[in-house]
Design goal:
It is built from three helices and twelve strands, in the order αβββββαβαββββββ. The chain is mainly beta and about 170 residues long. It is globular. The strands form three sheets. It has a seven-stranded antiparallel β-sheet. The chain has a three-stranded antiparallel β-sheet with strand order 1-11-12, with no helix packed on it. It has a two-stranded antiparallel ribbon with strand order 7-8.
Length: about 170
């Protein structure tokens, strides 16, 4: 099956969409919060906050995460051979905010360790998934990073949840 790119669509297949209604609708989808990290060829760590993260396959173990092509870290992730996904705890929402900002020194304030795959990860994350990059596919103004899971670990705690443009957690985890 050949993927369809948005540039391939003619005007008859495009729909008139109220963008504010679309973003409002998407904000009503509660999701977990992650920080995705990689290291570039010079050994510099890069990262971003993502709520677009999910499991794709058990055999082989695959996950995906989406990144805006406008993100400062896009060049590092577009060419990365590995990345890690740290699933955040409720009390780590401040990290999510820092990694969501452009220009912030994201790794400046400790709370990070080197993962088994050689990528900096969030120390004390609720869960950690370390991957080798399987593919990077364009999807509109984003890219989809598909990763083959090489390491995974979990811990107990309450997850950070993002809903209606605000952070929260589950009442009964």
């Amino acid at each position: 099956m050949t993927p369809v790119h948005s540039s391939d669509l003619d005007e008859t297949t495009r729909c008139d969409l109220d963008r504010s209604a679309f973003t409002a609708a998407m904000s009503r989808f509660a999701s977990g919060v992650t920080i995705v990290t990689t290291v570039d060829s010079a050994g510099v760590a890069h990262g971003f906050t993502a709520s677009s993260f999910c499991s794709v396959s058990l055999e082989p173990p695959l996950v995906l995460v989406c990144l805006a092509r406008s993100a400062n870290s896009y060049p590092a992730f577009a060419d990365c051979d590995r990345f890690a996904v740290s699933v955040l705890r409720a009390e780590q929402a401040d990290l999510a905010m820092r990694f969501a900002r452009k220009g912030a020194d994201k790794f400046a304030q400790g709370r990070f360790v080197l993962g088994a795959g050689g990528v900096t990860v969030v120390d004390g994350a609720l869960a950690l998934v370390e991957c080798t990059t399987e593919r990077v596919d364009e999807a509109g103004d984003h890219v989809i990073l598909l990763g083959r899971v090489r390491q995974a670990r979990v811990d107990d705690g309450r997850p950070a949840i993002y809903f209606n443009r605000a952070f929260g957690t589950l009442a009964n985890p």
